[in-house]
Design a protein that fits this description.
By secondary structure, the protein is of the alpha/beta class. It has helices at about 10-20, 35-45, 50-70, 90-100, 115-130, 140-150, 170-180, 200-205, 215-230, 290-300, and strands at about 25, 80-85, 105-110, 135, 135-140, 155-160, 190-195, 240-245, 250-255, 260-265, 270-275, 280-285, 305-310, 315-320. α2 runs antiparallel to α9 and α3 (about 50-70) packs parallel to α4. The longest helix is centred in the first third of the chain and has 21 residues, at about 50-70. It binds N,N-dimethyl-L-histidine (AVI). Its EC number is 2.1.1.44. Keywords: Methyltransferase, Transferase.
């Protein structure tokens, strides 16, 4: 009888790379795109003309900032404006500025895993909007949210922008939303940006730019495995490939092996064989419509109270409450 030796891993990254590349079909989680190089590439993506998501959400904030912030401040009581995964805060600053111009009492609490990101955001806020009270929260979303929750009973408005939830399968999104719901009090709000179903070509173009920035972003996971796990992936031996299913609204990114090849991952003591044209599924970017959003909300014990769209209906921000 063959004996299975249980492999032990030092990090979750090692385990997920090991399991994903031993699976059939092969897969790697997109959360590992984001190291220093990946963060920079994603910033570049957000400035690409094809990546309409950022501009559409900015347009929503510029157009509807008065109504959005009035809803945030509903009862006139001080509140905490908590942002999950704040990044450079470019979009949020529009709302922060509006809130402070209206003399609304709030504290901005951006949560990010990276202290570096938080430090950069905090110093830019001190420069640009010195009157805004800022309390950065380093940690994972839920670690930080749980910490904030036990502080005092202050009402919360939680922001989750940029269609970040779209990188989760519906099933995972529901687990995530239920967790947020569980940490919300009755009067708290959850403000979420969700990319909408649209002309499939527009979506394919956004994830398959001619300059190849998205391809670099996708391949960054291989670069990271090379560096952190002592592997020898040749990035030019893989092709970035995007598909979009207009029925389900799911965009999927793949890395496709251009030839039969073996990659060695020393740190995992693993040789990974690829057939020619074999795939690694790396990311989903889900697109939504109102019915799907209402279904997700219902599954998670939330309800949609308001929504805001850009002129072209490319993107929407929804307000959820418990
Ligand atoms: C972060 N996330 C919402 C982006 C998206 O649109 O799925 C990541 C991305 N992947 C390729 N381009 C941008």
């Amino acid at each position: 009888m063959q004996q299975e030796t249980a492999t032990t891993f030092e990090t979750q990254f090692e385990e997920e790379v090991h399991d994903g590349l031993n699976a059939f079909p092969k897969r790697l989680p997109s959360k590992y795109f984001y190291d220093e190089i990946g963060d920079k590439l994603f910033q570049d993506i957000m400035h690409m003309p094809e990546y309409y998501l950022t501009d559409a959400e900015l347009e929503i904030f510029e157009t509807h900032k008065a109504e959005i912030t009035e809803r945030f401040a509903a009862d006139g009581q001080p509140f905490n404006l908590i942002e999950l995964g704040a990044g450079d805060g470019k979009k949020t600053k529009i709302l922060l500025k509006q809130l402070s111009e209206k003399n609304i009492d709030f504290t901005y609490e951006p949560i990010d895993i990276s202290q570096n990101v938080l430090d950069g955001l905090e110093s830019s806020l001190h420069r640009e909007l010195p009157e805004v009270k800022v309390a950065t929260q380093q940690g994972t979303y839920f670690e930080a949210l749980e910490r904030i929750n036990t502080d005092d009973g202050t009402r919360k408005v939680i922001l989750f922008l940029g269609s970040n939830i779209g990188n989760l399968l519906h099933e995972q999104a529901i687990v995530f939303l239920k967790h947020v719901q569980d940490l919300m009090q009755e009067d708290d709000l959850f403000f979420v940006g969700l990319d909408q179903k649209k002309n499939p070509q527009t979506i394919l173009d956004a994830y398959n730019d001619p300059a190849g920035i998205t391809a670099e972003f996708n391949k960054n996971i291989l670069r990271r495995i090379n560096r952190e796990l002592e592997a020898n992936f040749r990035l030019d031996a893989f092709l970035h490939w995007e598909v979009y299913d207009p029925e389900t609204g799911t965009a999927k990114s793949y890395l496709v092996s251009k030839k039969r090849q073996t990659v060695e991952i020393k740190k995992l003591d693993l040789d990974v064989n690829f057939e020619a044209w074999e795939t690694i599924h790396t990311e989903i970017s889900q697109k939504y419509d109102d019915a799907t959003v209402a279904w997700l909300a219902e599954q998670s014990g939330l309800q949609v109270t308001h929504q805001f769209a850009d002129q072209a209906n490319q993107f929407k921000n929804y307000i959820f409450k418990k």
